[in-house]
Amino acid sequence: MPPKPKSSARVKVLSQWRGVDYAPLEVARATPARLPGDVLPALMKELRLDARQAEAEIVKVWNALIDPVVTAHAQPANLHKGTLFVNVDSSVWLTEIVRYRRKEIIERLQHSFGKSVIQKISFRIG
Predict the structure, then answer these.
(1) Residues 113 and 78 in one domain
(2) What is the DSSP letter of 115?
(3) What's the CATH code of the domain at 65?
(4) DSSP 48
């Protein structure tokens, strides 16, 4: 933010006469515009768009590769440090998936994304 300009007698008289202080507006107009290329990288990082795009891709692949019966009851929530967190809608399905389908699911996802991206899966009720 630019430093606050010194208020001169002229500015004080004009603001009293107008009844409104336009000095901040005039300072804002005097601030030069920045190039989009300078602003966008910081904005993308702040909004975490890269992570959101990766999570959306995981959901898309999940729905395409995994059995529709399982996808009706379990959906990926997020990916953090190589662990894919999956929300399951009931404890019955959690047991079913963990006991019988976990290995198949992780193999399919690792085949699509690579073993370095998805190292393990954590299922939870949610």
Answers:
(1) yes
(2) T
(3) 3.30.300.180
(4) T
pLDDT tens sequence across 71-98: 999 999 988 888 999 999 999 999 999 9
C-beta of residue 70 within 8 angstroms of C-beta of residue 92: no
117 in the same domain as 75: yes
Containing structural domain, residue 62: 48-125
Asked if 65 and 78 sit in the same domain, the reply is yes
DSSP calls for 49-90: HHHHHHHHHHHHHHHHHS-HHHHTTEEEEEEETTEEEEEES-
Q: With cut-offs at 50, 70 and 90, classify the pLDDT of residue 15.
A: confident
Give the Cα separation of 124 and 84 in Å (integer): 11
User: Looking at the 3D structure of the chain, how many domains does it have?
Assistant: 2
Q: Is residue 1 part of a domain?
A: no
pLDDT, averaged across the chain: 86
- If pLDDT is split at 50, 70 and 90, which confidence band does 7 have? low
